[in-house]
Design brief:
single chain; alpha+beta; f41 fragment of flagellin, N-terminal domain; Neuraminidase; four-stranded antiparallel sheet; elongated
């Protein structure tokens, strides 16, 4: 071996090996301490890239599982609410079946009606209060409110002579082309001719069982002179009965004095007549230049003459659902408080024996009355442009409430412009439907005619329609008691129906795959699924039969709605299992790339530690070369 004083190549080589084994030991210790095979990008760039993608996929899958589980919980809440409503509908069906029994008295049916009404209110409460994380589940989204033509052929109609049943199924109207009054089953398209002849006003009960109308058709052979009488048609019996037996001609073809109204339960009819009727229906007197208003009790076939002197139009008449209370408009000075003959509203308690006519409004000037509705508990709702409480300086159409108990008026809206027409109360008095061009909720800045709902259970006003530019709501149309269906005569002269039912609520659940991974669960809006909620009565046998059929249809429709939720359940459960499997397998794939082989790394550690020890010993020996040269120099 050559002894030199220059570079100690052997020592440097040993040092390099020592450093290398030290670095390898450090790497092994890093892998053992972290448990990962790749501790930095340099270890395995390709493997690190793959593992990072897998790790991200696992996290997304786990979050998607959370989304799916939340969606499952949401659907469980909705399905639980629908199951509760199913029980309520079944009870309603039982009550309707019981009320349809001919052995019950009217008082017994009224007890059943009270429970039926409370069940209606509970269904509405569940519909409006069921929510999940702030999302309303059963109310649905605003729909497009599309019109559909009900009668295809060209038929002429009188836009003043049209009405719709409480559940939106039966439309009654005058067919001017054929000279008939007809009732149309909107569900089946079946048209039933009620009567033929010349007709005055038309109205029908909430069930559509009873239709009342003026005519000189002499359908019963008891009006040979053709003076014109008030008739009632019973859909279930298919028969016409004559209500009035006037012995003098009526002038109802030329004035709104002969506007008629029927209570939602079909128990009471209100009408104007030039003949004054005794309680037994005989004529006591005759005022051809004007007339009076009568209330007719269907069950007892008795008349109540309000003993009024009315010489001008009666634009509106309305009963409470049970017929116990009555309101109407008139230009006449009926109570001594309307000396200027303004268009005012009046209230009459039909339970009082004819001694309680009250003037509600006192506008002391020109005003526009826009409809009137009255509840069973004595709340009168009406629209007017008058400034009744000092809050309507703009004289816009506003919604007002009059309390019979306190004789007080409350203004419920604060529109700055437009007109307002009160249309219909639910039979259970829980919702009031009205239309206006006013912007009541901040959604009608264009002042287009829209329908609104006043919720008497929860409070608040909701805009039901979303028309822009041109509204399809004709001012002469009629809305059903449940607020779902609006019938009208279109500008083209066709009978049309507008469906106000909200659209289904679609819940989009992300499963971690972008747009392709969205699972859409559909929850039908109950206002669109269930007909006649708040729109029907079981106070009579006929009404009960209608309500029974309606309840059966509702249970079937509810089953369909629950089926859609069940389909959403199934998809989400499958997605949950798939995401769990995907997360597990991708986690395993990531582990195969990233996890350290402890046995292998331990062996590597031992190997490199041995090499390090050997290198340390050899380094000491290699460093002896320089010392040997020094010793040789000393010898000389």
């Amino acid at each position: 071996m050559t002894v030199t004083l220059g570079l100690n190549i052997a020592s440097l080589r040993v040092q390099r090996q020592l450093n290398s084994s030290g670095n390898r030991i450090a790497d092994v210790l890093a892998r053992l301490s972290s448990g990962q095979r790749i501790t930095n990008a340099a270890d395995d760039p390709a493997g690190l890239a793959v593992s990072m993608r897998l790790h991200a996929d696992v996290r997304i899958a786990n979050k998607a599982r959370e989304n799916v589980n939340t969606g499952i919980s949401l659907l469980q809440v909705a399905d639980g609410a629908l199951d509760s409503i199913r029980s309520l509908l079944q009870r309603q069906m039982e009550l309707a079946e019981q009320s349809a029994n001919g052995s019950l008295s009217e008082d017994q049916r009224q007890s059943l009606q009270e429970e039926y009404k409370q069940l209606d209110a509970e269904i509405r409460r569940i519909t409006k209060s069921t929510e999940f994380n702030g999302i309303d589940l059963l109310k649905g989204d605003a729909s497009a409110n599309a019109s559909r033509q009900l009668i295809a052929q060209n038929v002429a109609f009188d836009y003043k002579k049209i009405d719709i049943s409480g559940n939106g199924r039966y439309a009654v109207y005058q067919n001017l082309t054929d000279g008939t009054v007809e009732q149309l089953d909107i569900d089946t398209g079946e048209r039933t001719v009620v009567a033929t002849g010349f007709f005055g006003a038309i109205a029908q009960s909430a069930s559509g069982e009873r239709v009342v109308f003026w005519s000189n058709g002499n359908f019963t052979g008891e009006d040979p002179s053709g003076y014109g009488q008030l008739y009632m048609w019973d859909r279930n019996e298919g028969e016409i009965s004559q209500i009035t037996h006037g012995t003098n001609p009526e002038a109802w073809s030329s004035t709104n004095l002969y506007t008629i109204a029927i209570s939602a339960d079909g128990s009471t009819v209100g009408f104007g007549s030039a003949n004054h009727y005794n309680p037994d229906g005989t004529v006591s007197s005759y005022t051809p230049a004007g007339g009076t208003i009568h209330l007719y009790d269907v069950a007892s076939q008795s008349f109540t003459d309000l003993n009024l002197v009315i010489s001008t139009d009666v634009d509106y008449m309305s009963f409470s659902a049970d017929g116990s209370q009555f309101a109407f408009s008139s230009y006449n000075n009926l109570t001594g408080q309307n000396a200027d003959n303004s268009n005012e509203l009046f209230y009459y308690d039909n339970r009082s024996g004819g001694s309680s006519l009250v003037q509600i409004t006192n506008s002391a000037g020109a005003q526009t009355i826009g409809g009137v509705q009255i509840t069973n508990d004595g709340k009168v709702y009406f629209g007017t442009t008058a400034d009744l409480v000092g809050q309507n300086g703009s004289f816009a159409g506003q919604l007002f409430e009059y309390s019979v108990a306190t004789s007080s008026i409350t203004q419920l809206t604060n529109a700055d412009t437009g007109v307002l027409i009160v249309d219909k109360l639910g039979v259970d008095d829980s919702s009031l439907y009205f239309r206006t061009t006013g912007d009541l909720t901040g959604e009608n800045s264009g002042h287009v005619t829209q329908f609104f709902e006043l919720d008497r259970l929860f409070g608040g006003i909701t805009q039901m329609t979303n028309y822009t530019g041109t509204s399809e709501i004709e001012l002469t149309g009629r809305i059903s008691h449940d607020g779902r269906t609006f019938v009208k005569i279109s500008a083209g002269g066709y009978l049309e129906a507008v469906d106000f039912s909200p659209d289904s609520t679609t819940i989009n659940i992300s499963t971690g795959s972008g747009e392709d991974g969205i699972i859409s669960a559909v929850i039908d809006a109950l206002n669109g699924t269930l007909k006649g909620i708040g729109g029907l009565s079981i106070g009579t046998q006929g009404d009960a039969r209608t309500a029974l059929e309606n309840a059966r249809d509702n249970i079937e429709n509810l089953s369909i709605a629950r089926g859609k939720i069940g389909a959403g359940f199934s998809r989400l459960e499958i997605a949950n299992r798939l995401l769990s499997s995907q997360a597990l397998e991708k986690q395993a794939a990531e582990a195969r790339i990233m996890d350290a082989d402890i046995a292998f790394e331990t062996a590597e550690l031992v190997k490199n530690q041995i090499l390090q020890q050997i290198s340390t010993s050899l380094l000491a020996q290699a460093n002896q070369n320089g010392q040997l040269a020094v010793k040789l120099l000393r010898l000389r």
